[in-house]
Design brief:
The protein is an alpha+beta fold. It contains 2 helices and 9 strands; from the N terminus they run H-E-E-E-E-E-E-E-E-E-H. It has a single domain, classed as Sandwich (Immunoglobulin-like), CATH 2.60.40. The strands form 2 sheets. A 7-stranded antiparallel sheet has the order 5-8-9-1-2-3-7, covered by helices on one side. A two-stranded antiparallel sheet has the order 4-6. It holds the Pfam family Sod_Cu.
Amino acid sequence: MDFKKWFMIGFLAFILIGCQNESRSNATVGLYNKDGDMIGTAKLTETSTGVEVLVNAEGLEPGPHGFHLHEFPVCEGPDFTSAGNHFNPTGKVHGLMNTEGSHVGDMPNLEADASGKIVEAKATLAEATLLDGKNSLMKGEGTSLIIHEAIDDGFSQPAGEAGGRVACGKIQLNDEGEMPTDPMEQKGKKEEE
């Protein structure tokens, strides 16, 4: 009888943990400019090959923009330096073109069209996860996404000479311990703070 009881408790705990992780398998993050206006979204999806990021944005200067994960979920304008450095739990150097391999926070440049829009830009973060683990984007308080004003050259240290930060989005759990699927949930939280 005791074995059956402990088995059921363990089984239920396993199911509950699985449900918690399922609620963190995707999220939509609002991207905000220095004035606090929402200029786009980034949809994050946990896949078998890492975290897929799908970006739609507007109001940017036409051309390439560096795009990185940063270490803190803090997006205080106008310069967003509150987001900290690049998310780098593996201790690697910067740059997708670096021969030693890039760090977790490196992503391909985004390309804004002539009207300043980024439409359906996709990147996969092979070493990242939304679930628990060393490379979790949810580790601690969370992380952030930053769009830079210029192109990331792919190898310069520490940040690819990508210039200032022009947009920021927080990747973090809501008060219920789940990833928000509506970026306006984050906006409301920002206004309350």
